[in-house]
Amino acid sequence: MVDLAVEGLSHVYGREVRALQGVDLRIASGERVALVGQNGSGKTTLVRHLNGLLRPSSGRVLVDGVDAARLTVAQMARRVGLVFQDPDQQIFAASVRSEVEFGPRNLGLRGGSLRQAVDEALDAVGLGTEARTNPYDLGSARRKLLALASVLAMRTPVLVLDEPTTGQDLRGVERVRSVIESASSAGRTVIAISHDMRFVAESFARVVVMHAGRIVLDGPPESVFAAPAWDRLRATYLEPPLAALIGESLGLGSTPTDEALIYAISSS
Amino acid sequence: MTLTLEKVSYRYAGAATPSLRDIDIALRDGEVLGLVGASESGKTTLCLVASGLAPRTVGGRLTGRVLLDGKDIEAARIHELAGRIGIAFQNPATQRSGVTETVFEEVAFGPMNLGQPLDEILERTSSALRALRIEELAPRDPGQLSGGQQQLVAIAGLLAMAPSHLVLDEPTAQLDPAGTTLVGDAIAQLALDGTSILLVEHKTDLLARVCSRVIALEAGRVAMEGAAPDVLSDPRLGQLGVAEPALVRLRRMAEGAGLDPARLERAEASV
Prior knowledge:
The structure holds two protein chains of two kinds.
Chain A: E1 4-13, E2 17-27, E3 32-37, H1 43-50, E4 58-63, E5 66-67, H2 73-79, E6 80-83, H3 96-106, H4 111-124, H5 140-152, E7 158-162, H6 170-185, E8 189-193, H7 197-203, E9 206-211, E10 214-219, H8 221-224, H9 230-235, H10 242-249, H11 258-266
Parallel strand pairs in A: 3-8, 3-9, 6-7, 7-8
Antiparallel strand pairs in A: 1-2, 1-4, 4-5, 9-10
Chain B: E1 2-11, E2 20-28, E3 32-37, H1 43-50, E4 61-68, E5 71-72, H2 78-84, E6 85-88, H3 103-113, H4 118-131, H5 147-161, E7 165-169, H6 177-192, E8 196-200, H7 204-210, E9 213-218, E10 221-227, H8 228-232, H9 246-256, H10 261-270
Parallel strand pairs in B: 3-8, 3-9, 6-7, 7-8
Antiparallel strand pairs in B: 1-2, 1-4, 4-5, 9-10
Helix pairs in contact in B: 3-4, 3-5, 4-5, 5-6, 9-10
């Protein structure tokens, strides 16, 4: 189990692009957190600090109370798995199986336990029958699921997904949803970046809204997407899900998901 | 002035089966045609074929004909095509020229290569950046942008080329909701100006907003075709791997729960 904390985290790219400006965030073990915000608001920069891919310009990242600066990349990799937005930044092996094997093999898995970790991860994303395929013979949506599987196979206590549903069709989105569901029910922390507010409201217990390198809202979907927060949400160029808008206009209170809205209408 | 596909089938080099089969599409000037379908149903391949990139640069074998303004696209020289048909790839990183140092130069790269006069280039570049509200990115290094910003820069580059036909392969995949709306506005404006647009999208809410017609592909064939509101509310959409627009889904769920749809509709109208 791993608790994450980010304290006064700032990151400057080059000399002048201030991507993060003093971010404070605590994420307890087992939480399910969505990170939302405009393009360029610092979401990807923030999550790349969580597995040590980026080092803070100032401030610090704590993993179970230990400053991440004192952990090696390998130690971080055991704790936090990060799936990139663009799978082609991640994929390099000649077959789907060897791609997924790479991570857990580096963590020391061999033989039957390695095979099992790989099989489970491939099945979870629906690529069980493609083990021998060259990753570049898969379409972009399935390459993205492959990148997800290769991180899943490492069975890290923390799973970070950068825009996992982007480019996925209906079935792909359902795959991602069920991966999040089962990782979460196995007690793993799931942190995901998304622009799809409906997906966020349905699949996450906590929503963190970023704007210009800072956190501006943080709470459950019921409060982040509720009418009192709309001004602050819209100041970051985000819109609450349609169900939330309709629920408020019917005077039913906060109904961030379609299910919540239908239920509220039925019982009103 | 139209973009027409006549009985087009296409097979990638070395592939066992064709990726497109018997596709007939006519895209009129000023029309936005939406293209939906499951992953690997042929959407991206259709984009490559409709823009003249396949088989010309991609290889493979095409049967049938692709006509651009009545002329076979195969017969046109590549530099002639460049000014008339623009394509946005799924992954904007693929699209970056790699030779420019600022976003402004990157967006100006297309019209410069078309040999436009300098003041025209400057005007087109500024107005493309303005349309997508990315003027503040102008001095930035195009290699150091977020995924969504790269996507907006790629689209701005296309706007600056002012082509008469556009093929957009998931142009908003990495965009935030506001960026998606801006791209939707830009598409609607281009269509008003007479540009024909083939738009591949998983975001059916966007298609519902900007498209007149929608085609759904399944295993390389046209499975459904019709007016956008009809196709996007067709219950078969889910079987084709396509998510319904938010409103369609809500109405279906309300109906399933035995609710009065009129009440939901009144609420929709008010938001």
